[in-house]
Design a protein that fits this description.
Strand 7 (124-132) and strand 8 (141-147) form a beta hairpin. This protein has helices at 2-16, 60-66; strands at residues 22-28, 35-42, 46-57, 76-88, 98-104, 111-119, 124-132, 141-147. The strands form 2 sheets. A 4-stranded antiparallel beta sheet has the order 1-2-3-4, with no helix packed on it. The chain has a 4-stranded antiparallel beta sheet with strand order 5-6-7-8, with no helix packed on it. It has 2 helices and 8 strands.
Amino acid sequence: MFPRLALALAATLPAALPAQAEVVGKVGVDWVGNDIVIEAIPDPKVQGVTCHVAYFDRSVLDRLSQGNWFEDPSWSALDCRQTGPITIGDIDRGADGESIFSERTSLIFKSLKVTRILDAKTNTLIYLTHASELTQGSGKMSISTVPLYDPAK
């Protein structure tokens, strides 16, 4: 019985985990080695939607000269698009949405998050990226929307 339970749990685990990002671009912005990283994030519960997030990645030299060794800036940009036929899985339909991606940007207290919210009234998926910070809140954000309609109709 235990192997069946373990197999059933393993089969449901990938659907419960947040999306995995893939680095698709990296642009050097200065001579000290600071970069802007661009990652592709497929929505794990909405097949056919991919988000691209751009964020700042500090170099070792910048960390040494500026201090604040264990933290990257909170700024990020987000754009999401339909990249195939859209199939919506079992998503959270509440007003607070559902986290689809999270990545640490400091040793303990800060992370970059992407949250999906369904606006059922306008039939639109809303994607929000923001920093989760204990000291300064999460005022730095970016938003993107994906309409859920069939253009052939």
